[in-house]
Every structure is written in C-alpha cells, then in structure tokens.
Amino acid sequence: MARPHPIRALLDTSYCLFLIRCRPAEEVAALAAQTPGSLAVSALTVAALQRHGWQSSNPERNRRAIEQFLLPLTVLDFDSRAACTLGTLPAAVDRAGSHDLLLAAQALQHRAVLVTASPERYAGIPTLQVCSQLRQIDRLPTERPPAPYTIHLSGSHDLSLQLLADWLHAEHPDRRLTTDPVGSLLGLMSLLQGKAHLAGSHLFDAATGDFNIGPVHRILAPSGLHVVIIGFVERVQGLLVARGNPRQIHSLADLARGDVQFINRQRGAGTRVLLEHQLGQLALDPGQIQGYTDTATSHLAVAASVAQGNADCGLGIQAAAQAFDLEFLPVAAERFDLVIPVEYFESALLAPLLALLRRRDPGFCGRVAALGGYNTWPMGQLLAEV
C-alpha cells in the first residue's frame, strides 16, 4: 500500500539517542507536529538503539522507552535500492563511519533531510541535506537537486567497467553506474530477479565456440525474459604467475603437477566455465589440481593471491596481471558482453550509456586498451536478441 505522505526526514542514531536521553522540549514539540508517516528511522538505527538499551543498567525500562519513541516513526529497511544508492557515494567520503554512510544512502534514496546530533559525520556527501534540529527542516529549501539516476550492473568482474562508470558520469552527471561482481551466472540470475538493469557476461559456449548467446538463451528463455546482447570488449585470459615464473609453469597441463598451487574462481564465474572447458579438452581431472577448490571472487583477487605468494598461479585477465606486475601466459581470447532486458534496452535510463558505447570514443577506447590485453572492436554492437 502506498504511503500517504513521502518521507520528509530521516532521524539518525545520534539524534534518536539525544531525543530519548534529553527530551528537549522544542524538539519534542517539533516531532509531535510532523505529519504522520513523514518521519522515519532506519532499521539499522532501531538495531543500534536496541543494543544501547540492552547494554544499559536498566534494559527493561529502556526497551519500553525505545518502543514508545518509535511508535510515530516509519521504520525503513536497508534494501537493494539503498544499496545501489550507497554504491554511488564517492570515495572521498570513505572517512565517514560505515553506519553513517548507510544512513546517508537511505536519506538520499528517499530524498529526505537527515537529522543528526553530529552533522560533521556527513560532511562532503553530495546532495545530502543535513540539519541538527528537527524544527529546522521547515526552513530548508523545498526544491532539492534531483537524485542521480543509478544504473545497476551485475555479473562478471572486469577492470574496464570502472572506466565505463567514470566516462558515463563525466558526460552525464545525472547518471551513475554501479557494479556488483558476482560472476556471469549470478549476474543473469539478477536479471531474472529484477535486481539489475544489465549484466556483464563472458560465458563460453562449448557447442558453438562462441560466447554468451547460447548460454544466455538456455538460462533466460525458459523464464520468458527477452534480452539483447551488446558487445563491450574482447580480452585475453591466461595464467598469472610471479615475476621470473619460479615454478616454470608454461601451460594449463602444468596445473596437475604436485608442486603447483592453484587459485580458482568461484562457481558461476565465466573464467571458471572457460577453465573447465579447457581442462576437458586436455583430459585433465580437476581433482589432480592442488587448490582447485580455493576460490577468489575477482580477477584482482586472483592476482593478489599470486602476488602475495599464497598461490603459484591462477587464471585471469591480462589487465589483472599488469596491475600486480605479474607475468602472463595467454590461454584464450574471449568476448565480454552486456546482457540487457528489452524493457531497459529501450528505456531513457540506459539511453545515454548505450549512446556512449555506440560512439566508441577514441579516448575511452585508448584508456581501456592501456589496461592490457583488451580490444574494443565489439563495443556497442548489437550481437543478438534472445
């Protein structure tokens, strides 16, 4: 059921504790004067208040006080939309505490004023309106800058996606691209669940020797989800080894040696799908590979494991090897595509992003190529509708 009134203000944890402990008359009166449903607290704040109550000298009395205080307030869950908003906050605000950032994201999501007893905690967060007294919100401007439109991409990890996000925001400041690196298969599941606008995928299709089109059709078509597949980049996958290649690893066949420790990717990752195909071609049993069940969730995590000496090698992209100054032994080239439900492909939300991809700006393509092991020939091409 729709709320009769929009959320006007979000009370943070410090302000709630201030009200409960001090009960200043003017602030209590301002609280009582607000339209029902217009004031909210986060479920995170409720949990924090309960923890304070349990740790007090009189837990039962404070439990009742907290329940009474919360009666006129709307409690907001920290949901996937708030998480997407959190992903748009710039790195410059990382000095804030994680609890404070979560509350700021919820206030931004609802375009609400954040009322806090400690306004300095939220300094530098763009477009966030902050005040230290509830009675001040009537004097704040009613027109606030529109919240940025957030495009959520789930799926495979790739270093060039951050360049894409930066490029999009530089040319369209009202658009932000957030990424959730969960692997190609889970990215497609996110589309089915309506949790993402597009997915990054590089699933190898052993039946055709191509990428994505067959697997996407087999996974999504039975559920009736109609998508388009747009090319993004071609990249090189290979074995990442330490400088000097101390274990003298030269091919995937060397993974079966007893003196080689491997680091794998998680199930559902396109890199692992490619590896399993390559091992099948070589008739290699994964059970022979030491570390095959040890996993990392991104190419950079694989590279870090090798660089730190926790593994002798792992399969990953050339750009990750270059980022950690590792040696790289090419195994296969692959295509990294973007899978987009038709409803979003035809939407105003994604129109600026798709226009940039089709334009194939030379400056952007040059920055992608500089990462190492990339070719941008597929960028913006409509590869299939499934």
Describe the structure concisely:
The chain has 386 residues and is an alpha/beta fold. Helices cover 37% and strands 22% of the residues. The longest helix is centred in the last third of the chain and has 13 residues, at 270-282.
> What is the number of helical segments per DSSP (H or I, 4+ residues)?
15
Tell me, what's the shape?
Answer: elongated
Overall residue-averaged pLDDT value: 89
Strand residue percentage = 15-25%
Low-confidence stretches: none
Proportion of helical residues = 25-40%
Given this structure, which CATH class of the largest domain is correct?
Answer: Alpha Beta
Terminal CA distance = 35 Å
Number of strands: 17
The CATH topology of the largest domain comes to: D-Maltodextrin-Binding Protein, domain 2
The secondary-structure class comes to alpha/beta
CATH architecture of the largest domain: 3-Layer(aba) Sandwich
Q: Which key phrases capture this entry?
A:
15 helices, 386 residues, alpha/beta, 2 domains, 10-stranded mixed sheet, elongated, Rossmann fold
Give a description of the structure.
- Helix 3 runs antiparallel to helix 4 and helix 5 packs across helix 6.
- The two termini are 35 Å apart.
- It contains 15 helices and 17 strands.
- The mean pLDDT is 89.
- Helix content is 37%, strand content 22%.
- The protein folds into two domains: 131 residues, 5'-nuclease (Rossmann fold), CATH 3.40.50; 236 residues, D-Maltodextrin-Binding Protein, domain 2, CATH 3.40.190.290.
- Strands 6, 7, 8, 11, 12, 13, 14, 15, 16 and 17 form a ten-stranded mixed β-sheet that branches. It has a five-stranded parallel β-sheet with strand order 3-2-1-4-5.
- The protein is α/β, with parallel strands linked by helices and 386 residues long.
